[in-house]
Protein backbone atom coordinates (compact mmCIF):
# COMPACT_ATOMS: atom_id res chain seq x y z
CA UNK A 1 0.00 0.00 0.00
CA UNK A 2 1.18 3.54 -0.77
CA UNK A 3 0.90 5.38 2.54
CA UNK A 4 2.65 8.66 1.73
CA UNK A 5 0.02 11.31 0.98
CA UNK A 6 2.35 13.41 -1.19
CA UNK A 7 3.35 10.39 -3.27
CA UNK A 8 -0.34 9.70 -3.90
CA UNK A 9 -0.84 13.34 -4.89
CA UNK A 10 2.16 13.14 -7.22
CA UNK A 11 0.74 10.01 -8.89
CA UNK A 12 -2.56 11.84 -9.44
CA UNK A 13 -0.62 14.76 -10.95
CA UNK A 14 1.37 12.48 -13.26
CA UNK A 15 -1.74 10.69 -14.53
CA UNK A 16 -3.49 14.00 -15.24
CA UNK A 17 -0.54 15.19 -17.33
CA UNK A 18 0.59 12.02 -19.11
CA UNK A 19 -0.03 13.65 -22.50
CA UNK A 20 2.48 16.39 -21.63
CA UNK A 21 6.24 16.51 -21.17
CA UNK A 22 6.52 15.88 -17.42
CA UNK A 23 9.90 16.27 -15.73
CA UNK A 24 11.01 15.11 -12.30
CA UNK A 25 11.28 18.80 -11.40
CA UNK A 26 7.63 19.36 -12.35
CA UNK A 27 6.47 16.61 -10.00
CA UNK A 28 8.76 17.68 -7.15
CA UNK A 29 7.70 21.33 -7.51
CA UNK A 30 4.05 20.31 -7.41
CA UNK A 31 4.72 18.60 -4.07
CA UNK A 32 6.95 21.48 -2.84
CA UNK A 33 10.08 19.37 -2.32
CA UNK A 34 13.54 19.24 -3.84
CA UNK A 35 13.73 16.75 -6.68
CA UNK A 36 16.47 14.77 -4.91
CA UNK A 37 14.52 14.32 -1.69
CA UNK A 38 11.24 13.61 -3.42
CA UNK A 39 12.85 11.14 -5.84
CA UNK A 40 14.04 9.07 -2.86
CA UNK A 41 10.62 9.16 -1.19
CA UNK A 42 8.83 8.23 -4.42
CA UNK A 43 11.06 5.25 -5.15
CA UNK A 44 10.80 4.01 -1.57
CA UNK A 45 6.99 4.04 -1.79
CA UNK A 46 6.49 2.73 -5.33
CA UNK A 47 9.62 0.71 -6.08
CA UNK A 48 10.25 2.82 -9.21
CA UNK A 49 11.98 6.07 -9.94
CA UNK A 50 9.73 8.95 -10.99
CA UNK A 51 11.26 8.88 -14.48
CA UNK A 52 10.70 5.12 -14.90
CA UNK A 53 7.14 5.44 -13.57
CA UNK A 54 6.24 8.21 -16.04
CA UNK A 55 7.80 6.39 -18.98
CA UNK A 56 6.07 3.12 -18.11
CA UNK A 57 2.67 4.77 -17.76
CA UNK A 58 3.06 6.49 -21.13
CA UNK A 59 3.89 3.17 -22.79
CA UNK A 60 1.04 1.31 -21.10
CA UNK A 61 -1.61 3.99 -21.53
CA UNK A 62 -0.68 4.35 -25.19
CA UNK A 63 -1.04 0.57 -25.57
CA UNK A 64 -4.56 0.81 -24.15
CA UNK A 65 -5.29 3.57 -26.67
CA UNK A 66 -4.04 1.32 -29.48
CA UNK A 67 -6.51 -1.31 -28.33
CA UNK A 68 -9.63 0.82 -27.93
CA UNK A 69 -9.08 3.61 -30.50
CA UNK A 70 -8.74 1.46 -33.59
CA UNK A 71 -9.54 4.31 -35.99
CA UNK A 72 -6.77 6.52 -34.63
CA UNK A 73 -3.38 6.15 -36.31
CA UNK A 74 -0.39 4.76 -34.46
CA UNK A 75 1.50 7.94 -35.33
CA UNK A 76 -1.14 10.15 -33.72
CA UNK A 77 -1.24 8.01 -30.57
CA UNK A 78 2.54 8.30 -30.30
CA UNK A 79 2.32 12.07 -30.73
CA UNK A 80 -0.27 12.20 -27.93
CA UNK A 81 2.41 10.98 -25.54
CA UNK A 82 5.24 13.13 -26.87
CA UNK A 83 6.91 10.68 -29.25
CA UNK A 84 7.91 11.02 -32.88
CA UNK A 85 6.89 8.04 -35.05
CA UNK A 86 10.32 6.35 -35.02
CA UNK A 87 10.95 7.03 -31.33
CA UNK A 88 7.51 5.75 -30.36
CA UNK A 89 7.89 2.50 -32.25
CA UNK A 90 11.33 1.91 -30.74
CA UNK A 91 10.27 2.76 -27.16
CA UNK A 92 7.07 0.70 -27.47
CA UNK A 93 8.88 -2.37 -28.76
CA UNK A 94 11.53 -2.07 -26.04
CA UNK A 95 8.85 -1.97 -23.35
CA UNK A 96 6.30 -4.46 -24.72
CA UNK A 97 8.57 -6.71 -26.84
CA UNK A 98 6.24 -6.16 -29.80
CA UNK A 99 5.78 -3.34 -32.30
CA UNK A 100 2.74 -1.03 -32.00
CA UNK A 101 1.31 -2.41 -35.25
CA UNK A 102 1.71 -6.03 -34.13
CA UNK A 103 0.24 -5.20 -30.73
CA UNK A 104 -2.85 -3.59 -32.26
CA UNK A 105 -3.37 -6.56 -34.60
CA UNK A 106 -3.08 -9.03 -31.71
CA UNK A 107 -5.99 -7.38 -29.89
CA UNK A 108 -8.47 -7.98 -32.71
CA UNK A 109 -9.37 -11.41 -31.38
CA UNK A 110 -12.10 -13.39 -29.63
CA UNK A 111 -10.00 -14.34 -26.59
CA UNK A 112 -6.82 -13.44 -24.71
CA UNK A 113 -4.54 -15.35 -22.34
CA UNK A 114 -5.73 -15.07 -18.75
CA UNK A 115 -2.96 -13.38 -16.71
CA UNK A 116 -4.10 -14.87 -13.39
CA UNK A 117 -4.62 -18.46 -14.62
CA UNK A 118 -1.96 -19.41 -17.13
CA UNK A 119 -3.80 -22.47 -18.42
CA UNK A 120 -6.99 -20.52 -19.23
CA UNK A 121 -8.18 -18.22 -21.99
CA UNK A 122 -10.50 -15.29 -21.38
CA UNK A 123 -13.15 -15.74 -24.07
CA UNK A 124 -15.33 -12.89 -25.32
CA UNK A 125 -18.93 -12.59 -26.41
CA UNK A 126 -20.10 -10.75 -29.52
CA UNK A 127 -20.51 -6.98 -29.70
CA UNK A 128 -24.29 -7.42 -29.81
CA UNK A 129 -24.31 -9.48 -26.61
CA UNK A 130 -22.28 -6.85 -24.75
CA UNK A 131 -24.32 -4.02 -26.23
CA UNK A 132 -27.57 -5.51 -24.90
CA UNK A 133 -26.17 -5.54 -21.37
CA UNK A 134 -24.55 -2.10 -21.26
CA UNK A 135 -26.33 0.99 -19.99
CA UNK A 136 -25.15 4.58 -20.46
CA UNK A 137 -25.63 6.52 -17.26
CA UNK A 138 -24.63 9.77 -15.59
CA UNK A 139 -23.09 9.09 -12.18
CA UNK A 140 -22.75 11.62 -9.41
CA UNK A 141 -19.40 12.36 -7.76
CA UNK A 142 -18.41 9.93 -5.00
CA UNK A 143 -16.77 11.13 -1.78
CA UNK A 144 -14.69 8.18 -0.57
CA UNK A 145 -12.15 6.92 1.90
CA UNK A 146 -9.45 5.31 -0.22
CA UNK A 147 -6.26 3.30 0.00
CA UNK A 148 -3.94 2.96 -2.99
CA UNK A 149 -1.99 -0.11 -3.95
CA UNK A 150 0.61 -1.11 -6.50
CA UNK A 151 0.62 -4.86 -6.98
CA UNK A 152 -1.17 -7.93 -8.21
CA UNK A 153 -4.98 -7.74 -8.40
CA UNK A 154 -5.02 -11.25 -6.98
CA UNK A 155 -4.37 -9.64 -3.58
CA UNK A 156 -7.66 -7.74 -3.79
CA UNK A 157 -9.59 -10.13 -1.57
CA UNK A 158 -7.18 -9.78 1.35
CA UNK A 159 -6.87 -6.01 0.84
CA UNK A 160 -10.64 -5.60 0.81
CA UNK A 161 -11.00 -7.63 4.01
CA UNK A 162 -8.38 -5.52 5.79
CA UNK A 163 -9.89 -2.30 4.45
CA UNK A 164 -13.46 -3.07 5.51
CA UNK A 165 -12.27 -4.13 8.97
CA UNK A 166 -10.29 -0.92 9.41
CA UNK A 167 -13.18 1.35 8.42
CA UNK A 168 -16.15 -0.70 9.65
CA UNK A 169 -17.27 2.16 11.91
CA UNK A 170 -17.93 4.30 8.82
CA UNK A 171 -20.36 1.88 7.18
CA UNK A 172 -23.92 3.04 6.66
CA UNK A 173 -26.91 1.47 4.96
CA UNK A 174 -26.16 3.19 1.65
CA UNK A 175 -22.35 2.75 1.70
CA UNK A 176 -20.86 1.66 -1.63
CA UNK A 177 -17.63 -0.28 -2.07
CA UNK A 178 -15.75 0.92 -5.14
CA UNK A 179 -12.51 0.00 -6.90
CA UNK A 180 -10.83 2.57 -9.11
CA UNK A 181 -8.50 0.90 -11.59
CA UNK A 182 -5.76 2.59 -13.59
CA UNK A 183 -4.17 -0.30 -15.47
CA UNK A 184 -5.15 -3.10 -17.81
CA UNK A 185 -3.62 -6.35 -16.46
CA UNK A 186 -3.38 -7.70 -20.00
CA UNK A 187 -0.90 -4.86 -20.65
CA UNK A 188 0.67 -3.92 -17.31
CA UNK A 189 2.90 -6.35 -15.43
CA UNK A 190 0.79 -7.96 -12.71
CA UNK A 191 3.05 -6.76 -9.89
CA UNK A 192 2.80 -3.14 -11.10
CA UNK A 193 -0.98 -2.68 -11.39
CA UNK A 194 -2.19 0.49 -9.67
CA UNK A 195 -5.61 0.55 -8.03
CA UNK A 196 -7.59 2.24 -5.26
CA UNK A 197 -10.04 0.50 -2.97
CA UNK A 198 -12.68 2.87 -1.66
CA UNK A 199 -15.88 3.22 0.31
CA UNK A 200 -18.31 6.11 0.13
CA UNK A 201 -18.55 8.39 3.16
CA UNK A 202 -20.17 11.63 4.19
CA UNK A 203 -18.55 14.70 2.63
CA UNK A 204 -17.70 15.97 6.11
CA UNK A 205 -15.55 12.93 6.97
CA UNK A 206 -12.40 14.22 8.67
CA UNK A 207 -9.98 11.41 7.74
CA UNK A 208 -6.86 12.37 5.77
CA UNK A 209 -7.37 9.74 3.08
CA UNK A 210 -10.64 11.13 1.71
CA UNK A 211 -10.97 12.12 -1.93
CA UNK A 212 -13.65 12.75 -4.54
CA UNK A 213 -14.08 10.44 -7.52
CA UNK A 214 -15.40 12.45 -10.43
CA UNK A 215 -18.75 11.34 -11.80
CA UNK A 216 -20.09 11.94 -15.29
CA UNK A 217 -21.06 9.71 -18.20
CA UNK A 218 -20.20 6.02 -17.84
CA UNK A 219 -20.94 2.81 -19.71
CA UNK A 220 -22.15 0.32 -17.08
CA UNK A 221 -21.92 -3.42 -17.59
CA UNK A 222 -23.50 -5.53 -14.83
CA UNK A 223 -21.38 -8.53 -13.80
CA UNK A 224 -22.95 -11.33 -11.76
CA UNK A 225 -20.58 -14.21 -11.20
CA UNK A 226 -17.34 -15.46 -9.69
CA UNK A 227 -14.45 -13.09 -9.01
CA UNK A 228 -12.16 -15.19 -11.20
CA UNK A 229 -14.37 -14.39 -14.23
CA UNK A 230 -14.28 -10.60 -13.85
CA UNK A 231 -11.17 -10.33 -16.04
CA UNK A 232 -12.90 -11.88 -19.06
CA UNK A 233 -15.92 -9.59 -18.65
CA UNK A 234 -13.72 -6.52 -18.30
CA UNK A 235 -11.59 -7.41 -21.33
CA UNK A 236 -14.65 -8.15 -23.45
CA UNK A 237 -16.02 -4.67 -22.84
CA UNK A 238 -12.67 -3.09 -23.77
CA UNK A 239 -11.71 -5.37 -26.67
CA UNK A 240 -15.08 -5.97 -28.30
CA UNK A 241 -17.66 -3.38 -27.23
CA UNK A 242 -15.81 -0.10 -26.74
CA UNK A 243 -13.91 0.08 -30.08
CA UNK A 244 -17.17 -0.32 -32.08
CA UNK A 245 -19.56 1.43 -29.70
CA UNK A 246 -19.26 4.94 -31.09
CA UNK A 247 -18.03 6.14 -27.67
CA UNK A 248 -14.52 7.08 -26.59
CA UNK A 249 -12.98 6.56 -23.18
CA UNK A 250 -12.16 9.92 -21.62
CA UNK A 251 -9.42 11.02 -19.21
CA UNK A 252 -11.17 9.67 -16.11
CA UNK A 253 -10.44 6.13 -14.96
CA UNK A 254 -12.68 3.09 -14.67
CA UNK A 255 -14.65 1.99 -11.62
CA UNK A 256 -15.99 -1.26 -10.23
CA UNK A 257 -19.01 -0.62 -8.01
CA UNK A 258 -19.92 -3.60 -5.84
CA UNK A 259 -23.61 -4.29 -5.36
CA UNK A 260 -23.33 -7.61 -3.49
CA UNK A 261 -20.40 -9.70 -2.26
CA UNK A 262 -20.24 -13.23 -0.88
CA UNK A 263 -16.61 -13.63 0.16
CA UNK A 264 -17.12 -17.28 1.13
CA UNK A 265 -18.23 -18.37 -2.35
CA UNK A 266 -16.27 -15.55 -4.11
CA UNK A 267 -19.47 -14.55 -5.91
CA UNK A 268 -20.06 -10.86 -6.64
CA UNK A 269 -22.58 -8.60 -8.32
CA UNK A 270 -20.92 -5.44 -9.56
CA UNK A 271 -21.11 -2.72 -12.20
CA UNK A 272 -18.07 -2.37 -14.45
CA UNK A 273 -18.07 1.35 -15.20
CA UNK A 274 -16.12 2.76 -18.17
CA UNK A 275 -15.87 6.58 -18.39
CA UNK A 276 -16.93 7.72 -21.85
CA UNK A 277 -17.54 10.81 -23.92
From TrEMBL:
Domain HTH araC/xylS-type: 8-106
Keyword Transcription regulation: yes
Presence of the UniProt keyword Transport in the record: no
Keywords: DNA-binding, Transcription, Transcription regulation
Domain of life per record: Bacteria
InterPro entries: AraC_E-bd, GyrI-like, Homeodomain-like_sf, HTH_AraC, HTH_AraC-typ_CS, Reg_factor_effector_dom_sf, SmbC-like
SMART domains: AraC_E_bind (SM00871), HTH_ARAC (SM00342)
One Pfam family this sequence matches: HTH_18
GO molecular function: DNA-binding transcription factor activity; sequence-specific DNA binding
Name of the protein described by the UniProt record: Transcriptional regulator, AraC family
Source organism: Clostridium carboxidivorans P7
Amino acid sequence: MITNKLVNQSIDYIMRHLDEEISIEDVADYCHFSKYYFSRVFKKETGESIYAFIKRLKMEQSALNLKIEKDKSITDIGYDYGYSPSNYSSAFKKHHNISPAEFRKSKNTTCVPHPFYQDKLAKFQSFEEYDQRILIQELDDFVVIYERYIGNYIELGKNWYDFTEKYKDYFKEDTLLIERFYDDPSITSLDQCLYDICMTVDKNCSLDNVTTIQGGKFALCRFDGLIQDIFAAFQGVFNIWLPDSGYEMDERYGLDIYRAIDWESMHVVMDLCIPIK
